[in-house]
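pipeline/complex-builder :: batch 7 item 3
reading input block
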Amino acid sequence: MTPRARWPLAWLILVAVASFAAPAVGGAFGLDPSAVDLADRLAPPTLAHPLGTDELGRDLLLRLLEGGRVSLTVGVAAALAAAAIGTAIGLGAGYRGGWTDRLLMRFADAVIALPLLPLLIVLAALDLNKLHVPAALAQSDEVSLVRIVALAVLVSWTTAARLVRGATLVTKNRDFVRAAVALGAAGPHILWRHILPNVAAPLVVATSLSVGDIILLESVLSFLGLGVQPPLASWGSMLSNAQELIAASPLLAVYPGAMIFLTVIACNLLGDALLRRHDRQR
Amino acid sequence: MIRFAAIRLGEIAVVLAAMSFLIYGLIGLMPGDPVDLMVSADPRMTAADAARLKAAYGLDRPLPARYAAWAQSALAGDFGYSRLFAAPVGAALLPRLGNSLVLMGTSFALAFTLALGLGTAAARRPGSIVDAGVNLFSFAAVSMPTFWLALLLILLFAGGLGWLPAGGVAEVGGGGPADRAAHLVLPVATLTLASVGGYTRYVRAAMREALAQDHIRTARAKGAGEARVVLCHALRSALVPIVTVLALSFGGLVSGALVTETMFAYPGMGKLVFDAVMGNDYNLALAALLLATATTLFGNFAADLAYAWLDPRVTYR
């Protein structure tokens, strides 16, 4: 592990472990992140509430960890899904070449060229009832989570697709691939065993960078009221609520933003460290 | 070259036409319906009135027919009437476009100057403390949620210190140049910080590549001063990728400041898009989204042209 990667990685592990262990550990001590205590609203930090309480008297630290679970889940899930879809498209385009390649890459270019945030706002505001999504599904708590992951994948798959396509174009003409083809290996076998291992390293770097981007995207949409919906809360939606109380309690807005900032910069620094190590090894 | 430009312009037209249909269809899928809104606002309206209104606006026709009617008048320059602004779409758009240009232009010039200085300083001594510092700064800038930065600036300079106004373009009734400038400071600072990180990384990468080239060594060997080497020789070849980024960010001019404008209640294009989408103003949202798409596509086109213009080795067929 390079020293560059140590601090970002330590922070990410800390946030992830704390967020995902919070319900179990907190539950064992009888702590509930949604426990309302109206007598103790907007309280300053105390021993019982290390970061104080919010406008309903809920413990801010526990709420932050709740939000972290949602933000991290969206970031990692969407980044992995985007990497998988992008890899499939990139492999197909690079290996098949010709018209398949041209069509897929023009499509990727078009997605990259669009003004994404305004279009995402339209997509995030779509009425699921008008799309004939079953009401039970459209009204479940998790639907906003699924929607935001889908939107993030929609804008993020192009990075992996271009990367994998480029690497595939280079690799497919190398001698060991030609040898495998001459030996009669089937297409899927060549893609899986010979080409994919050669694009794995840059793909890992790109995915780590895109986790940060997606957390940022999720926080913007949630902040605008179009992302994660109550009862779920992410750091972005917490900030959105805190904005109304900004005069009374500015710290309520400072904490979730700081969590977003530190987590995104950790993802970016980690990606950068991995990239440097990858470049040195070549 | 002309052939290339013609093909690209054709592509842009096709993408724009496809996007207009897509956006038209998507906007109809948003919650709410203009006629339902009117009905709920007026208790005397009956179901028959609503049906008559829908027929009068052509809302009872199938989607392709409605789109065709819209496209026909749009091509003639008529984008309809904005419900939110109670004015024709063009009259609602234009002043806001001007506001956005002022905001984006100022912060772009600032961010670019800053990035040029920081990126060049970092590229001249790779691995030095300066390089590490610039690297950390640019990572911090790209990782900063824009709305949080805006919130912090408002808290500090408008709330705590009370030095600057928190939003809008001018005081009510006031509006001298000094007042307008004061209202620009915080949004410009936000946008500058939000974009300087990416630019700095581009400049640094381009300058490092440029400084490693043979003609730089030749210039040094001939005894050119360091300032001359960096400014005249390296910057000239680093300019190609830098101008490309410049042209690409021109594309974001219309909608690039959506979050910043919304945070500072600055009446520009980004806030207009957001308000139009949220307020079910179909005509306005459609026109604004298409304008944003068009500028982005033309920005990319300009980047391609600039590339060929600056680098004689690049030819398009």
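note: The mean pLDDT of chain B is 80.
queue -> next item
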